[in-house]
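The freezer alarm interrupted the setup, so I double-checked each line after restarting. Inputs confirmed:
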Amino acid sequence: MSTSSSTHPAPPAAAAPAEAGVNYGLVFGILAVLVLLVAPFGVYPVFLMKVMCFALFACAFNLLLGYTGLLSFGHAMFFGGSAYVCAHTVKVLGFSPELGLAAGVLFSVVLGFLAGLLSIRRQGIYFAMVTLALAQMFFFFCLQAKFTGGEDGLQAVPRRALFGIIDISKDINLYYLVLAIFVFGFLVIYRAIHSPFGQVLKAIRENEPRAISLGYRVNQYKLLAFVLSAALAGLAGSTKVLVFQLASLTDVAWQMSGEVVLMTLVGGMGTILGPVVGAAVIVTMQNYLAGLGEWVLVIQGVIFVLAVSLFRRGFVGEIIAIAQQMKARKSQG
Amino acid sequence: MFELLGIPPQALFGQLLLGLINGAFYAMLSLGLAVIFGLLNVINFTHGAQYMMGAFGAWMLLNYLGIPFWGALVLSPIIVAIIGMAIERTLLKRLYHLDHLYGLLLTFGLGLIIEGLFRRQYGSSGLPYNNPLPGGTNLGFMFLPNYRAFVVVASLVVCIATWYVIERTKLGSYLRAATERPDLVQAFGIDVPRMITLTYGFGVGLAALAGVLAAPAYQVSPTMGSNLIIVVFAVVVIGGMGSIMGAIITGFGLGVIEGLTKVFYPEASSTVIFVIMALVLMVKPAGLFGTAK
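Predicted 3D structure, all chains:
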């Protein structure tokens, strides 16, 4: 990613006047949360929860790809690894849901630190291959380890009361927990991107040698971004366990890593809302096409090819680009 | 009969031979990846699917047209290479001016399409392909199946021929020059875009050839490529893509190490290459034969 900056759409917040941008963003954010608060009365809540889990996963992934310029092809190891830990601690060790989530995230942080230390030693294409290989190693570990349940996975993970009082065995109650987690994760990412830390990440994405020459310890920033991304991907994976009561090999397989890349690409990498839109599009598509079996793989591949060939900025990226064009035209005439 | 660390020699040498065969596939695939990456700056994620297409090509040629293995050994790689060149002309070509990652994503998508179509048509389980060289030789310490010996020798010959062409011939010198400075080579009147297409075709053909060789040794299955390509990526990270000979040595070497692990500590046999990759990254991040870029 460091080679050419022209391929990246300009981050929206930087282009718009700061004050107006914040206000619009705030209004939009409040509206979006209000819609999500009433949404389960109109739409099947489990579907919405699935979208939010994958949206958080994709946002976490986008922090690395869109804002730091690192394409990880192994994010399934954090999503699925955390899911296994959460499922195991809740089902076998009898943890409460909040402790299970914490255990899952903690595991992702540790795994993210180790994988990050190794993979940031290479850049670009090699970074993608290293993360893919590390994730595959983790996949084989999960395949052979006893506690993961092998091919069956960990099924029927109980939904105990949250903090001992809130009954999340009802889908509607669980929905609000998942919504809270999603909003929390989203705000963490939003905050990180709009902080001085986020600016350094963007500098690394645009021109790594220059960031180094300006005195930034680039590797520490990359590692921190990697760990943060892994932690939030883990939060998404653990939350998914509470929703589906299941952790399986699907969550750690390379196809899952590919799926999150696809979601981010379709929605628009390097945009704050892109991954959310992308996750919604892909999950909806999977739901509708579930009966088609192997065609899902083909269709996902076709979307990849189309997205890379025709709309590299993704849905949200293209909308931002059109809006900016119109604004530029208005200021001219 | 002697024994080595409590392992009967038949098992040891048998696994060693299997390791060499796997190593031959690693070498041929990483060689193709390196040649393609050198000129196109694209990591060909479709490589695994093209290896699988090579194997299926052999299977289809036999079952639909009655063309035996030896015909397929030549025909199938050519057909797959032509399909590959068509992909390069229509899709990949448009991405060269962009970041390398887009090439990776495009070829990943293509790999999904190909694998999905084959799974749709032939299911996920494997199809048998008859051994064209049945029988074998008893070497005293082990039984050497003819076909396995053929695979190792054939792939060694192909790898060394590739090395010779690239490092020792005029054509290879054009290729190496175009890898360094395509604009200058173009200025000297050499058709670089055509060279890029042919190089991609060659790399893809190499993958398909490995696939044809793999068809009788393993089963022909739509998922055979995606499982292999991830290991090959690790091989590429270990060896670095800077050197042709490096890719060959790393490929065979890692195959042998994997085979030995199967004998002495089978639980780790599927992960040993990834562990080696992690170790190499800690000690020499650029790869054993790579140069820091």
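Quick read of the result. The beta strands of chain B are 136-138, 143-145.
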